[in-house]
Design a protein that fits this description.
The structure is a homodimer. Chain A is built from 19 helices and 28 strands. A 6-stranded mixed beta sheet of chain A has the order 4-3-2-1-5-6. A 6-stranded mixed beta sheet of chain A has the order 12-11-10-8-13-14, with helices on both faces. The first copy, chain A, is globular and about 70 Å long. The model of chain A has no long low-confidence stretch (mean pLDDT about 95).
């Protein structure tokens, strides 16, 4: 395997030959995925650092990787000595990618990019900077040219159809709903290119991306038909028959550009510039039969507001998942008490043992984050065998994990007390818990947005000028990706919550080199009722796992917060104890005791 | 004086002659003022009901007045039997003005309006509805034709210049800042037509509108000069000289259209379609020398972020104002204790006695709201001699009042306990206080908007599916209007708070027929400090008047809320007692005792 400097040197040679001055690699793939298949992770290969939401820029003499707050510490460490600079996104004094380009691009400079992995919206921003500098933005195949060895092939895992008993609607019904939405937008067709939207639309699943049960595919939907572009050899005959009955035709993964070129029928096609890749956009504009309309993908909202079947299934998934979490914690406590030397990587093994025994288990929904002590300050810490920490009988162990079952996808974090805690450690934990509860018990008048609700989460932090450098919560796809939009609990998010939406509630404290604490449940948005003042909404937890209370400074909680946690723990006991044996039930009773 | 039905009948005759099917009268004036001079209040004259933020619509057979939540109860009462329907804005099942028009306008219908009092933005919405119905929108002078008797003349009160010691900047400096802002927007001129913006820009004050120290005027500002359109005969020689030295030319109030027609120089003029009246917009578009650019008026933000002098002066105004509030309450308590029969209208007299004795007093900043018992459910209740309630030794008296001094404008509400209270009355008061405190002690990361902060205010209400049908708070102009934009504490307001902004914090409970409670302070946005997580902001109260605590269920407050109120009362005592005599000081000490 080449070293990072060797990889970058090879890339610079290719840049020189192509007359390219700067090359940009975003953390994207042809589907604007958050988690790309290994085949597309050029920014990771050339920087040597694994992360999402990043941008790697390479000039003839510099290289710099922009990472978000979750990765600051880890990137600093990993990039040290590689010649790649670690750039902290959004931090005062650190230029944005566009600003950094603005001072480096000159009249006549060439900024290279790969149109297939660049969302249209981002391509336009780059074009604007290039225009203002007199530079050229050029689609160059340098990644494919240089990155040949050590590169994973395009994935092609078995693909299957999620049954209506789990999905709530047949693909044919969903296509009909989508067509109605398109008509309302005066469109006759749409390019569906995001994997989560496509998976929802066609009830299609596979395992092309680690921990994310999707198939690499594109779809073209018009009023009469849908054309699915994927390696369809991996579909069972039943799945093929199902899709065919839904009016879905099959073509190869790479055939969409050719298909678009062939079309002669006049169509008004909806595209979402935030996710459509620049290459497909070019293909579309090359055929004058298409009138292109840009807008948000209506599938995002259709998918985000779960139907009754999806909700019921998901609630079941969480009950099973909680029983695994309970058994995991009992084993952890026992083995720690017995003085056994456990390491961070053991956590995933224990969790996997219990989760995989649950009915309908498919896969973990993301790589388990098991972070002991200061390691937890890295929000997305991934322990590695050999370098992982040994658990000591003191401080905190943060475990963020989840699974996808046929019934749904889960995401949960608990921060376990392994022994002695300082006052500061307890205070930090208590503040995180207060943030968590203040969101969980929110009630709001219909129309309130994620940005407005996020304000509630952060008050217990902000009053002490503390914060966490990430959203408070994200949506979770149904039997799908663990992160989805469009709603989120995050400053300035403008999407109003609607009953049936699911959101994680995961405030935290992360102090580099010392501590990391996070408490995460999933919440469902439900109706609270109606009064003369209008309709009110609230959240109902769907995660039912005890929250460690021995590390809480109870006197810091308000009465309402105490009432909330007591009510929550009563629910946990009621819902999870039926799945447990007598010893486990006794353990749970203790953990759920009222404060 | 004609009755309301007589006035409407006369108006309908004029409509018939003009071929007009429906006529719309918004609560506006040529300056899009919230409070119009009496001369322009056609919607009040023809409906017989006084209010802001309204729309009166008259057809040949129907009449309907749209009012907002503050006026629901009062409008229902006042309009009963007049033939004018009371329409509750924003309530489910009540059509909006535009929806109501949509079902009444037919192919060929004529919707009449007065372009001089119709903001461009609203005119466009009307035009859109007319277009969709095949109706015509026609500028008709029917109001001037019908409303001749009982109509106040255009006001022309003495006008004067607010000195730099109060304003912080000379008009010439403000003009220079505005010109810089215009340049940054690629504009060379602006029409300044909002009275508050104009008053701020030129340090010009008068008393043309009740309780609002402004002069009716328009201003045209380009890179070389400013032209002020007003009845300038009322300016002193000093004021004229001041304006002249600032490069301001004077013309008559009605001469702007002629001035715009005369212009031959090519100018790119900024207008704000939210406030420019449709008539001036026509005048501008009739002259091809003008290129019109639409955008927000930069003066709104310049004015809303107070300078150091404005802030210092305002803080002083509030200290004096608080001493008057304290003396008022002492007198109220004494006279009630002596068994005196006081009425609601007495409240303003007592307040005026103390306020007007303060240095630099100019005028009340709005008509005092003194509402006893159920009358307080009407947020903008105006007691009238003869029909006002007598105060009883039980329940609540809500007093919302304020004054404009040379140093600043104040706005404060206290809800006084006159005697016995039920548990429900105490609970309601406690909830309002919690809302108030939760905003007052907010800390947030730079960038948070008024909509996001509003969420904090309403949680103690929303958790019980209660609400108040108004914003939580508004900005206050410096020596000016008691309401100003662009920031506010209100759901979905998107303006980020900036140090130097002032905002009222006035949550309330209003239950028709039973109760009205409001607690209002003014707050200044200040820096809270900076940490590794960024810059944090918070509020600092500038109103220092004790909050009645005998009506609070103290056990319902959180520890943080108790700490806040104790700290606040300590500040009140420290800041106000130096202005009081020994007896008053003793009284204040009691009121400020820690809970």
């Amino acid at each position: 395997m080449k070293t990072v400097p060797e990889r970058i040197a090879a890339f610079r040679s290719a840049m020189e030959k192509a007359g390219c001055d700067i090359f940009i690699m975003p953390s994207s793939d042809p589907h604007s995925s958050e988690y790309a298949p290994a085949h597309e992770t050029a920014w990771e290969y050339f920087s040597g650092f694994s992360c999402e939401n990043a941008n790697l820029l390479i000039t003839r003499s510099e290289a710099a990787l922009w990472v978000d707050g979750r990765f600051f510490g880890a990137a600093d460490k990993a990039l040290a000595g590689t010649g790649v600079q670690s750039m902290h996104m959004g931090v005062k004094g650190v230029p944005s990618v566009l600003a950094w380009l603005g001072v480096r691009l000159k009249e006549g400079s060439v900024l290279g990019y790969n149109a297939e992995t660049m969302p249209l919206h981002n391509m336009r921003q780059l074009k604007e900077v290039c225009d203002s500098c007199g530079a050229k933005l050029v689609d160059l195949p340098l990644v494919d040219e240089v990155w040949v060895e050590d590169r994973a092939p395009l994935p092609s895992t078995p693909a299957w159809i999620l049954g209506k008993e789990y999905a709530g609607m047949e693909a044919s019904e969903k296509l009909a709903v989508l067509r109605d939405k398109l008509k309302a937008l005066n469109c006759t067709a749409e390019l569906v290119t995001k994997l989560d939207c496509l998976a929802w639309l066609l009830n299609l699943r596979a395992s092309d991306v680690d921990c994310t049960p999707y198939a690499l595919a594109f779809c073209y939907v018009d009023m009469d038909k849908a054309v699915l572009f994927m390696d369809y050899s991996r579909l069972s005959d039943d799945a093929k028959a199902y899709l065919s009955a839904c009016g879905v035709e099959l073509r190869g993964y790479k055939e969409m550009p050719a298909f678009l070129a062939e079309n002669t029928k006049s169509e008004t096609v909806l595209i979402d510039p935030a996710s459509l890749n620049a290459s497909l956009n070019n293909a579309l504009h090359s055929n004058s039969a298409f009138t292109v309309v840009e807008g948000s993908d209506p599938l995002a909202m259709l998918k985000a507001v779960k139907n009754e079947t999806e909700l019921e299934c998901t609630r079941k998934a969480h009950i099973y998942d909680a029983s695994a979490m309970v058994r995991f914690q009992i084993e952890l406590e026992k083995r720690m008490a017995a003085g056994e030397k456990l390491r961070e990587t053991d956590i995933d093994s224990i969790l996997h043992k219990y989760r995989s025994a649950n009915p309908g288990f498919i896969v973990e929904s993301f790589p388990t984050i098991a972070a002991y002590g200061p390691n937890a300050a890295n929000m997305h810490y991934a322990p590695k065998a050999g370098s992982d920490a040994e658990l000591q009988p003191k401080g905190y162990l943060l475990v963020d994990s989840g699974a996808t079952y046929y019934t749904g996808t889960t995401d949960i974090t608990r921060t376990y007390t392994l022994g002695e805690l300082s006052y500061e450690e307890k205070l930090a934990y208590t503040r995180v818990l207060r943030c968590h509860i203040d969101v969980a018990m929110a009630v709001w008048k219909e129309g309130a947005t994620g940005g407005e609700l996020d304000m509630l989460a952060r008050q217990p932090m902000w009053r002490h000028m503390l914060d966490y450098r990430c959203g408070t919560g994200h949506s979770v796809s149904h039997v799908g990706a663990v992160h989805e939009g469009p709603h989120s609990l995050r400053p300035h998010n403008g999407v109003a919550f609607v009953p049936g939406m699911i959101i994680t509630n995961e405030p935290g404290i992360y102090e580099e080199g010392s501590i990391g604490i996070r408490i995460e449940n999933e919440l469902e948005c439900v109706e609270a009722g109606e009064s003369e003042y209008g309709k009110f909404l609230r959240f109902e937890p769907i995660t039912f796992v005890p929250v460690e209370m021995s590390s809480v400074l109870v006197e810091e909680l308000t009465r309402e917060e105490k009432d909330w946690i007591n009510h929550y723990h009563a629910q946990v006991f009621e819902k999870i104890s039926p799945l447990l044996n007598a010893e486990e039930t006794e353990w749970l009773k203790n953990k759920c005791a009222a404060v």
